[in-house]
Amino acid sequence: MTTINGTDLDVFPLCFGGNVFGWTADQDTSFAVLDAYAAAGGNFLDTADAYSAWVDGNSGGESETIIGRWLAARGNRDDVVIATKCGRLPGLTGLSAGTIRTAAENSLRRLGVDHVDVLYAHRDDPDTPLEETLTAFDALVREGKVRHVAASNYSPGRLAEALEIQRREGLAPFVALQPQYNLMDRDEYETELAGLVAANDLAVFPYYALASGFLTGKYRPGSTVDGARASKAEQYLDERGVRVLAALDEAAAAHSTTVSAVALAWLAAQPTVTAPIASARTPEQLADLLPMADLKLDQDELDRLTAASAR
């Protein structure tokens, strides 16, 4: 387990991304995946009110609803760290004070809980003053509805400004950042954000940790893969992507493990990363991810992966 900086929350090395629930995994399959994750020691779930509003017939909140039903069925709320997000649900976008409160209370209802452990701003809202947003988050913390607040998809400048306002005004501070970061998408995080989060001792939970599935190794030259994320994953299948796959294959063979586990272990080993976020739509897919929790790559292996993924 790893403790989230600035909190007393101990979390599993792999945060499970709940975006698949109500999208590519129905309720029964979602329950099976959640059961398998918990049986392996997993205790950290990431969701959002906007999951999965992009599916025809969905209105958002499907992932939270499924998680809430699972928590109720298993009676394990106290064993699970729940993170959710607000600000991107169609019809409830932005980070005004009223929107944040309504979104948070709706999330609590769907999850069937009296508080969430982490509430993220799903993305920055340049049309709402930061002071209003941060004061609204602080109020939820003071009321006990949210234990900690965090940011996702913030630019370095806006994140630095938010942190300064929180310090100056004595508001509940951001304890974490959720950026896009993986072996294939490194430049934006490493050049602009890594130093800032390190200086402010923020936890980091990268999303798209497997580059929309590319880093599972199932996308290869000449292969055809059907899936909801295939078009995104296939964009990485260039000369650089082939180099990364070769380095992943080598490390996976050396440790008798999966390509997915190696990719996640590389990410987990980066100095500012607390735990990567990854999802699976079946227990079988999850089984490919779980070995990362105990996988320790040596420095030479980390260096080879880093070099292979360099632009």
TrEMBL record:
<dbReference type="GO" id="GO:0005829">
    <property type="term" value="C:cytosol"/>
</dbReference>
<feature type="domain" description="NADP-dependent oxidoreductase">
    <location>
        <begin position="13"/>
        <end position="308"/>
    </location>
</feature>
<dbReference type="Pfam" id="PF00248">
    <property type="entry name" value="Aldo_ket_red"/>
</dbReference>
<dbReference type="InterPro" id="IPR036812">
    <property type="entry name" value="NAD(P)_OxRdtase_dom_sf"/>
</dbReference>
<dbReference type="InterPro" id="IPR050523">
    <property type="entry name" value="AKR_Detox_Biosynth"/>
</dbReference>
<keyword id="KW-0560">Oxidoreductase</keyword>
<protein>
    <submittedName>
        <fullName>Predicted oxidoreductase</fullName>
    </submittedName>
</protein>
<dbReference type="GO" id="GO:0016491">
    <property type="term" value="F:oxidoreductase activity"/>
</dbReference>
<dbReference type="InterPro" id="IPR023210">
    <property type="entry name" value="NADP_OxRdtase_dom"/>
</dbReference>
